[in-house]
What we know:
The structure holds 2 protein chains of 2 kinds. Chain A is mainly β. Chain A has no helices and 11 strands. Chain A has strands at 4-7, 10-13, 19-25, 30-38, 44-51, 57-58, 67-73, 76-81, 90-98, 107-108, 112-116. In chain A, strands 2, 4, 5, 6, 9, 10 and 11 form a 7-stranded mixed β-sheet that branches. In chain A, strands 1-3-8-7 form a 4-stranded antiparallel β-sheet, with no helix packed on it. Chain B is mainly beta. In chain B, strand 5 and strand 6 (46-52) form a beta hairpin. Chain B starts with a strand and ends with a strand. At the A-B interface, strand 5, strand 9 and strand 10 of A face strand 5, strand 6 and strand 11 of B.
Amino acid sequence: GAVVSQHPSWVICKSGTSVKIECRSLDFQATTMFWYRQFPKQSLMLMATSNEGSKATYEQGVEKDKFLINHASLTLSTLTVTSAHPEDSSFYICSATHRGRLNTEAFFGQGTRLTVV
Amino acid sequence: AQKVTQAQTEISVVEKEDVTLDCVYETRDTTYYLFWYKQPPSGELVFLIRRNSFDEQNEISGRYSWNFQKSTSSFNFTITASQVVDSAVYFCALSGLNAGGTSYGKLTFGQGTILTVHP
């Protein structure tokens, strides 16, 4: 149990277009979902925290108007990169915490590799 | 603020050697969780271990072992008899606890250590 699925696994888009990445908890309800970004050969940096039905909380330096997060249900959060530019090319990975399960780790999706050309 | 430091950027060993990956952390929280993840070239994060700050017992799982030293704020990871399949990036991470006392899930990652095991 506790599977998190991200879609797509990879995407190539043209500069100026928008890209939506989905993060789904397949077999549990996720209280909170987290979005991380990882540039090549670097660590994972938290971008934002999203709770179902409320606005996401963005980390300092992350543009909320550029990285739109929607957490409409307990099993789905989406990250939309608007007006993507080559510098947005990165590996985006989500994680989710399990509602109702105490003392547990966050479960990670498999990640989405975004390339903006 | 929380901080995790993995001083070893890259480690290269020959198969069957033992290797230890270092992790030092900083936090003002009195209770917290520590994690190790493996990231193979495909990119997904593979969960290896979670350790509660109250539990300082070392843990062994097959060829993997972890040494938690609260006094030195370290949580080191040792692979015994390394194998080529162990080649990956390894991340140490830290999480505080929410008001309910459960792992918050918001992780602070170290810089990662690239481990290469040669045949």
